[in-house]
């Protein structure tokens, strides 16, 4: 998706060889116009799928998922919770996730009321790296008997192994920008020359 | 906003005299169609204001803020972070917040890059209760020299004091459903008869 890759080149910041900061448009300040372009693109890539619900995980996936849902007929969005308050249901599907960026383990939870064996979900997230959060979401779908129609990722860092986890499940994975490598402050997209950012 | 009040009556769950659970459409499963109606209503209520940015706080405000932003010309959304990872900037505005639902204190942070004295913000959140999260957002705007053009709340629980905190600042506050009291499983909206839910 050219508009996205150009935005990463323009506004992304590479830190070391693993961190790509895109907090000016994707996960702290949010560019809702760009999110709409992302929604159109996911609709195009999953146009042959029957999708009844979007599943994501807090925090950065939520805004993207809500905009994307509009391109699938305003279907419901459900987000897995990392931080449950006293209002949270106690009857949940749960899965353990390791966060490499926060260097902690945590549990994600989805109320059993909001995901079930009649749902056909599209899982949406901002990043795919090691795939640990995604494995947790897939695990929750399996527990609920939910059909996963696809996984839509805004930025994939393909050198961290997440793609293999999803493809071995036989799930259609669509990433709108695939970063193959990062070094010396440069992003190298898949099948393209390196881009200085 | 009648469509919202009717939805609260239909799908909300009152627990005790302080908790109104609306996780089936507002803060766990998200009704994006309803969020669009909310966006139209906020645009109508703040139509005379020059608003350049929407400010909210993770988690539940984010999806609503993104949809609302579309009705203000796809202006940027910035959300204050409660849980900052290693990717978070270190140069932030910060404010302390007490959460009554999670019974903890926490710090909210906004990078100094994404809020400044040229911004005219509309603050959006799902709930207004004691106003502690809102006070933190207002505090951050003051630190940044940002003009607050208004506060837009989906559900206000008016018996917990948050309105006074905002009105004493001279800020326009618009709440789309104002709950005056909750008891015996009932919600009593402002200026209306009690509704059984």
Describe the structure.
The structure is a homodimer of 197-residue chains. Chain A is built from 5 helices and 12 strands. In chain A, the strands form 3 sheets. A 7-stranded mixed beta sheet of chain A has the order 5-4-8-9-10-11-12, sandwiched between helices. A two-stranded antiparallel ribbon of chain A has the order 1-2. In chain A, strands 6-7 form a two-stranded antiparallel sheet. In chain A, a hairpin with a 3-residue loop joins strand 1 (13-15) and strand 2. The mean pLDDT of chain A is 94. The longest helix of chain A has 14 residues, at 32-45. Chain A has one domain: Rossmann fold. The radius of gyration of chain A is 16 Å and the shape is globular. Chain A is α/β, with parallel strands linked by helices. In chain A, helix 2 packs across helix 3 (61-70). Chain A binds chain B through residues 15, 19, 21, 23-24, 28-33, 35-36, 58-59, 62-63, 65-67, 69-70, 74-79, 81-83, 85-89, 99, 101-103, 110-111, 113-114, and chain B through 15, 19, 21, 23-24, 28-33, 35-36, 58-59, 62-63, 65-67, 69-70, 74-79, 81-83, 85-89, 99, 101-103, 110-111, 113-114. Strand 5 of chain A pairs antiparallel with strand 3 (29-30) of chain B, so a sheet runs across the interface. Chains A, B: Pathway: Purine metabolism; XMP biosynthesis via salvage pathway; XMP from xanthine: step 1/1. Chains A, B: Pfam families: Pribosyltran. Chains A, B: Xanthine binds at residues 20, 27, 157.
């Amino acid at each position: 998706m050219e508009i996205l890759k150009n935005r990463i080149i323009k506004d992304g910041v590479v830190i070391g060889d693993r961190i790509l900061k895109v907090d000016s448009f994707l996960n702290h300040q949010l560019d809702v116009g760009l999110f709409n372009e992302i929604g159109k693109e996911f609709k195009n890539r999953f146009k042959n799928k029957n999708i009844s619900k979007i599943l994501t995980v807090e925090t950065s996936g939520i805004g993207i998922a809500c905009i994307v849902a509009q391109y699938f007929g305003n279907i419901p969005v459900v987000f897995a919770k990392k931080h449950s308050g006293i209002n949270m249901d106690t009857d949940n599907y749960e899965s353990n996730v390791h966060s490499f960026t926060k260097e902690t383990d945590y549990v994600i939870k989805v109320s059993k009321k909001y995901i079930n064996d009649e749902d056909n979900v599209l899982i949406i997230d901002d990043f795919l790296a090691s795939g640990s959060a995604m494995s947790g979401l897939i695990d929750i779908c399996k527990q609920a008997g939910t059909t996963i129609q696809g996984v839509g990722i805004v930025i994939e860092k393909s050198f961290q192994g997440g793609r293999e986890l999803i493809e071995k499940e036989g799930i259609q994975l669509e990433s709108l920008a695939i970063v193959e490598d990062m070094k010396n402050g440069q992003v190298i997209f898949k099948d393209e020359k390196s881009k200085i950012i």
